[in-house]
Amino acid sequence: MTRRGAPVDVVGVGRTFALGAGEVTALRGFDLHVPPGGFCALIGPSGCGKSTALRLVAGLDWPDEGSIDMAGASPDELRRQRRIGVAFQDPSLLPWRSVAANIRLALELVGRRHEHAAVAELIELVGLGGFEKARPAQLSGGMRQRVAIARALVTEPDLLLLDEPFGALDALTRQQLNDELQRIWTARGTTTLLVTHSIPEAVYVADEVLVMSPRPGRVVARHPVAFERPRTRELLLADEFHSAVQTVSASLHRSEGQVVQLDAGADAEAEADEADETGTVPPGADEAGTA
Q: Over the stretch 170-183, which tens digit does the pLDDT of each residue have?
């Protein structure tokens, strides 16, 4: 696999939002590093700031403190250059457009309207050959997510950001798409950051799993994933896989409203907060798969 894409270096990032007469600090002291072509998964308790962190890396919001660097460029610079691809839990497809036309929309936004070969290649890569002319209403939920991922990749971004893209799907479809995501990432080698609530999903697809504390969120554990690629479903039955999942789960262990960091040498313990994450997206942010 050819490694390509931008490295992501986040250092000491903090983000606070106004909320009524008060304020909510979503992130504080948040650090993150993803090497070029790396695949990192971010997990944590509800409301810990995972999606806020993803929006900051996408250039859809700005930190109050700290820095975010991508090989000398800021997220906003990469976003304006259409070098960041984003896929959310809601695929946000245009219902009157076909599969091919929804994917082509990302190219149209950057003035590359006639690159039909790129669209055809992505349709085959995500396993939608034969559905080029289908409308979103004619597709299953999993197929619509494949279209969203293809749309995010068609501009050949330096960074792919995935915010719970399979969270609303049934377990079987979710595992099928985990297989597809791993295959697509192996073929493309794009730097990828995935936000997920599923520990098995994170361990199955990522090179490294980062565990966040409750709000204000920060990374409290880093778990490299050493399984060889390509990873197949047989791995899901292996003792080594279950051990890795248990290790990550231990970092996220919750007891009486607390999340306890159990990694060697760590002593982080933070109060849990189940409140939803709060954030804003600046005007003009794109919702068509590229940021």
A: 888 888 888 888 88
| CA nearest neighbour of 251 among 280, 211, 283, 204 | 211
Spacing of C-alpha 215 from chain mean position: 19
pLDDT, tens digit, 9 for 90 and up, residues 32-69: 999 999 999 999 988 889 999 999 999 999 999 999 99
Single pTM value for the model: 0.82
Beta pairing partners, 17: 24
Written as six digits, the tokens of 86 are: 């984003």
Counting every residue, how long is the chain? 291
Residues 6+ apart with CB under 8 A from 67: 9, 10, 11, 12, 13
Q: Show Cβ contacts of residue 28 under 8 Å, excluding neighbours closer than 6 positions.
A: 14, 216, 217, 218
Using an 8 Å Cβ cutoff, are 193 and 54 in contact? yes
Q: Which domains does the chain have, with CATH numbers?
A: 8-83+157-271 (3.40.50.300)
Separation between Cα atoms, residue 100 and residue 113, nearest integer Å: 12
